[in-house]
Specification:
There is one protein chain. Strand 4, helix 4 (about 80-90) and strand 5 (about 95-100) form a beta-alpha-beta unit. By secondary structure, this protein is of the alpha/beta class. The longest helix is centred in the middle third of the chain and has 14 residues, at about 120-135. It has 9 helices and 11 strands. About 30% of the residues are buried. The chain has a 6-stranded parallel sheet with strand order 3-2-1-4-5-6, with helices on both faces. Strands 7-8-11-9-10 form a 5-stranded antiparallel sheet. It has 2 domains: about 5-120, NAD(P)-binding Rossmann-like Domain (Rossmann fold), CATH 3.40.50; about 125-219, Regulator of K+ conductance, C-terminal domain (Alpha-Beta Plaits, 2-Layer Sandwich). It binds adenosine-5'-diphosphate (ADP). The site of adenosine-5'-diphosphate has 20 residues, from helix 1 and strand 2.
Length: about 220
């Protein structure tokens, strides 16, 4: 795997989870937060943890931020600090900047000042939980773009025992089955003759409107 250097700015609930996970995966992680207690808390689980104000360009410069491959700005509640930190890391030349937004306006601002990707962890998790609550057959729901998503579902009753060719979701619903999970195994390039088992899980990709048609059948 290509190991990269990540700087995580803001180590609240979301930021510290991103930082810990990247570190566990073997990457170099610098965690920055203005709160000393929070820094002490994460210091054993990242490469370096430093207390600094991310809205202070000189502090970030002195930490050598420009040498990092990716910056993740996870300051959420203080929108002004989130915007300033994003602007500074972008101006320092970090190639890929991911920022967390609290709402659509915040996201727009982040994109305008150069964020390469904006994430909405609370909104996305809310959506995933809501889809799963509506039907226990919908195991997960991940938005890819405003109108397109990936949905993990248990097969409809009349799909069980049939092949992908027979259920023909492409022409019936306009969606594609990307993968079939059988227990711990995963068929990531299913073919027309693959047969769907009762306990399989299907990973389906499509337009939200088309996925909704399938969702309604499993309610
Ligand atoms: P979460 O909901 O993920 O906990 P918050 O926005 O509440 O997100 O927390 C973001 C973190 O960012 C907090 O730990 C806070 O101390 C930190 N933070 C806020 N402003 C700054 C700043 N100017 N510089 C560095 N860290 C900051």
């Amino acid at each position: 795997m290509n190991m990269k250097q990540y700087v995580v700015i803001g180590c609240g609930r979301f930021g510290s989870s991103v930082a810990r996970t990247l570190y566990k995966m073997g990457h170099d992680v610098l965690a920055i937060d203005s709160n000393e207690e929070i820094i002490q808390h994460v210091s054993d689980e990242v490469t370096h943890a430093v207390q600094a104000d991310a809205t202070d360009e000189n502090s970030l410069k002195s930490l050598g931020i420009r040498n990092f491959d990716v910056a993740i700005i996870t300051i959420g509640s203080d929108i002004q600090a989130s915007i300033m930190a994003t602007l500074i890391v972008k101006e320092l030349g970090i190639k890929y900047v991911v920022a967390k937004a609290n709402n659509e306006i915040h996201a727009k601002l982040l994109f305008k000042i150069g964020a390469d990707r904006v994430v909405f962890p609370e909104r996305d998790m809310g959506m995933r939980v809501a889809h799963n609550l509506v039907s226990s057959n919908i195991l997960d729901y991940i938005e890819l773009a405003p109108d397109y998503s990936i949905m993990e579902i248990a097969p409809l009753d009349d799909w069980v025992g049939k092949t992908l060719l027979e259920i023909d979701v492409r022409s019936k619903y306009g969606v594609n089955i990307m993968a079939i999970k059988h227990g711990y195994e995963m068929n990531v390039s299913p073919i027309a003759m693959d047969r769907i088992g009762k306990d399989d899980i299907l990973v389906v990709i499509g337009h939200n409107k088309d996925l909704e048609k399938i969702e309604k059948q499993v309610w």
